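Data card: per-record layout.
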Amino acid sequence: MAVAMASCGIISGIYTNLNAIEKLSISSSPCLFRGSFGLDPIQRICIVPKRLGFSESTIIPKASSAAAVEDGSSQDTAVPTPKVIIDLDSDPEATVVEVTFGDRLGALLDTMSALKNLGLNVVKANVYLDQSGKHNKLCITNASTGRKVEDPELLEAIRLTIINNMMEFHPESSSQLAMGEAFGAFQPYQKLDVDITTHIHVYDDGPERSLLCVEAADRPGLIVDLVKIITEINIDVISGEFDTEGLLAKAKFHVSYKNKALIKPLQQVLANSLRYYLRRPTTEESSF
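The structure for this 288-residue chain is written out next.
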């Protein structure tokens, strides 16, 4: 399902304590992202080790306290795994975002307010419960176009905004999030070995596209980095889903090369390029 790409946005101005992000330019295309970014070395989002702040956001009353449960009682329970899912596949008109943190999340009014400050509209919101807890699902569009959000920088801004608000109102969540190391109240409870954590697979998914599955240690800017690496080898990203599950990031991208599924040699090139970058995130070109 090819979708039209939104114009590229810059997310550096939305946080007062977030370092400047170098601009990335992406041209319009029938695909979500097409071709090379045309930029030399891979640029990363840098975050100072402080909690993020929103320059213009209006904070609406806080969600329930860290230890509060649905019946209002206070109990010492294990901290659930925070999850943020950004889905570009399930709704043709909107980007679907799902946020889960056990039964500790409130109505997310503060988060929706912060998203509006990014130039976004929450066109629909609903909540459902299952054995894993309360799931808050938001359907988001770009306020200026009324279309779903597809720009990787803006998708990353959405993700960081939600995670920042979760750590603001539920500080205990930072111990289970990779972002907690940079600007959370508590350090992550463990460090992931990137060589063990990184898994990349490419599958055939019909004659016109392939399915790329990536699992890696999470870090700020990962959505932008993944898309940049893929497009630098002239592979088109058609659509996808990006999940933040605690310290892990899990991505699924539908990709193609010249409107065809990737042949086996190109699948291997793609997997090797991503694996090399994800397993060596601090490698500099000057070391070669």
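Known properties of this structure: The first helix runs from residue 109 to 116. The helical segments are 109-116, 152-169, 180-183, 194-197, 222-232, 264-279.

See the next section for split statistics.
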